[in-house]
Design a protein that fits this description.
Blueprint lengths: L6 H13 L4 E6 L6 H11 L4 E7 L1 H8 L8 H9 L6 E5 L5 H7 L3 E5 L10 H6 L3 E5 L7 H12 L1
Amino acid sequence: MGNVLSRSDLQKQIEKLRQDGKRIVTTNGCFDLLHVGHVRFLAEAKKLGDILAVGLNSDASVSRLKGPERPINSQDDRAEVLASLGSVDFVSIFDEDTPVEFIKAVRPNTHAKGADYKPSDLAETPVVQSMGGEVAIIKLVPGRSTTALVQKLSHKQT
């Protein structure tokens, strides 16, 4: 998959783009069951710059964060679906519990997160700011979440 890259390959691509004067935006997440909330969030994140690079939690990372029943979709499937979106330029899978190492590699001008977070609660905020970047909070689509979808599906099976 052309725009699903290892961290080192992503770093090389981003450096070339930065030298061309492009503004780099990052975000991260599990993106397990992709829904309209994700699509709108990513479109808004893309508007904050020229290039959007998404750090995607690996399967092991999702399981540690969300529990043994997650993810529902494999990291390769999640990466391919994300990479197919027009707003997403690059996807890179990371295995850590936070996106700090991904952020250090990409060095974004802006790091975007959903309004369910506050910059002060994010492990990546001090890293982004130490590199001269900013953390942007994007409004979420009400009632749209992977957790809500999982709960809805589990109730239909009973």
